[in-house]
Amino acid sequence: MLSLLGLEHEIIRVDLIVGEQKSAEFLKLNPFGQVPVLIDGKLVLRDSQAILVYLARQYGGESWLPSEPEAMGKVLQWLSTAANESQNSLSAARRFFLLGTPIDLEGAQQKARYTLEVIDKHLLNRDWLETNHPTIADIACYPYIELASDAQIVLEAYPQVSAWVTRIKQLPLYVAMPGF
Ligand SMILES: N[C@@H](CCC(=O)N[C@@H](CS)C(=O)NCC(=O)O)C(=O)O
């Protein structure tokens, strides 16, 4: 999102494998001990959805998060999808395969497939999740969907979602995140 907005930034890596996110220093930034955290001047902000809302409002004008109530509500509903459905399915299954985190794998993969079916149907007659241009709805949902193969979910089974992933990758100033 920082890149899409053309904002200069520095990425400070936190080594999750050795547990740097639970260090006393990092817990001052996010007491929940998780990345990402955004530091912008005096502001320290945790959680990706909150960070997207802040960046869109502060630096993105109307385009990435419309302020008209109905459009705003429609965009924000997908931030909830990213934090719940996507996190508890695609992300959980990915953690199982990459880190061996114990979970109900079958349940997570089933939920992942259902979530992708819903999004695939939603995208049938549209290029972007809401409005007729990219918003933070797309950016919030994109990461774990793009990483679906890590969760052993075949993204090609969802043609509208696959085409949407390609559209996001073609956005000006798009950069892949580590892990892609
Ligand atoms: N609600 C948070 C969840 C963030 C999250 O799950 N972060 C993971 C990496 S993607 C993490 O820091 N895991 C390390 C840990 O929980 O110890 C968000 O959306 O930003």
TrEMBL record:
Domain GST N-terminal: 1-63
Entry keywords, A to Z: Transferase
Record's signal peptide: none
Gene3D superfamilies to which the protein is assigned, alphabetical: 1.20.1050.10, Glutaredoxin (3.40.30.10)
GO molecular function: transferase activity
Domain (GST C-terminal) ranges: 68-180
UniProt record similarity statement: Belongs to the GST superfamily.
Record PANTHER family: GLUTATHIONE S-TRANSFERASE-RELATED, HYPOTHETICAL GLUTATHIONE S-TRANSFERASE LIKE PROTEIN
Protein name (database record): Glutathione S-transferase domain protein
Organism per entry: Nostoc commune NIES-4072
